Protein 1
Amino acid sequence: MIKSILLPIDLNHESSWAKALPQAVSLAQTHGAAIHVLTVIPDFGMSMVGAFFPKDYSARATRETKAQMEKWLKDNIPEGVEADFLVLHGPIYKEIIAGANQVKADIIVMASHRPEMQDYLLGPNAARVVRHAAQSVMVVR
Ligand code: ADP
């Protein structure tokens, strides 16, 4: 039974949901499941880089991203489909896995990679999620 679907999206790249969203919606409608849309604000990796950003950068980025996600849900989730969103911070694939655990996802639905990254069959985050997630992963090509 699928009751909880995690849909990780990169708000800057429509290709991260163009094909994955219809699959998630179809699963949600078939199974009466909820879609949890996740976006991750990547960390800087190096504290030296972070030092160049204003101190309130993280809080501001979270506020703005939450507003964008609210609008995204209104614009993209069809009526009658239960959906909410999460905004997490950190390394993308790790936060996708943490988000999947948080919402007790039965399945993660995600696009394989950006179309312009033709050398990849699987992008770096999609590959790591497939390798490390405890849940089933539907990689949409
Ligand atoms: P690419 O480098 O080609 O974009 P990725 O593996 O990073 O390949 O992207 C594949 C998928 O990973 C995206 O379709 C999306 O589901 C997920 N993803 C990428 N970036 C983010 C992000 N910032 N927040 C949530 N999910 C993301």
Protein 2
Amino acid sequence: MLENKTGIVFGVANQRSLAWSITESLASAGAELAVTYQDTRFEKKIKKMAGESLEKEPLTILCDVTDEKQVDRLTQTLENSFGKLDFMVHSIAFAGKEELEGAFINTSRDGFLKAMEISAYSLVSLSRALLPLLKEGGSIVTLTYLGSSRVIPNYNVMGVAKAALEAIVRYLASDLGPRRIRVNALSPGPVNTLSARGIKGFTGFLEQVDQKTALGQNISGREVGDTALFLCSDLSRGITGEVIYVDAGYNIMGL
Ligand code: NAD
């Protein structure tokens, strides 16, 4: 489905990362890929994972989105290695641990700005940086969560950042539509990842959601990966500016 297509997935920390499940789905469809990691301490593990479990080894690139020099270097590496891009997946979020517990009203100014910069603004800055490479149109996908529009205990400032992210998806979709670049968000149900475990009470939450989905169970990372594959492929060519839930129907339920 993605033969002769090249793309990049931002935000692999380990094997549990949704970015990794997405990478596996995209790779299985034949895409040529680059994946990014935030910190050199992830590097060895990610290179090993990439070498071992994917048929075609992806490029692995260091990219902390708060470091403009790293973003510039990444763009240059992609230009030199691929010459063009067909899709980009943004699977990055951050809020300090102290912001993900207790009352939202206690969100600090620094905590608010950091969460917004990394979890929302980075979609704007990365899309702008990679725009010259999306030469023949393309697809941009990000990951949001239901906490953008409903109050989820302890999700706090991250819910506000996800609301901003979803608005960014719509504005970018309008900006980039004339270039045939589509911009969409996936909204997965809870999955046990490094970031998710930073939210106070996450494990109990996972159990509660499991009982209440329409499909009767929580989702897997690979279900998110396969929906990302759909959004990166031409099968979704008529869809832009949308938030697509991959949550086993949790968001439609009343009681
Ligand atoms: P994860 O911890 O595996 O991934 C988060 C990634 O963000 C990590 O790779 C981390 O290094 C990266 N990151 C943080 N700060 C960064 C920075 N300054 N520069 C570059 N990268 C940075 O966790 P995940 O659950 O796979 O999260 C991926 C995305 O999915 C996030 O946007 C998250 O909000 C979203 N999401 C997760 C769930 C869930 O339950 N796990 C549900 C809905 C949405």
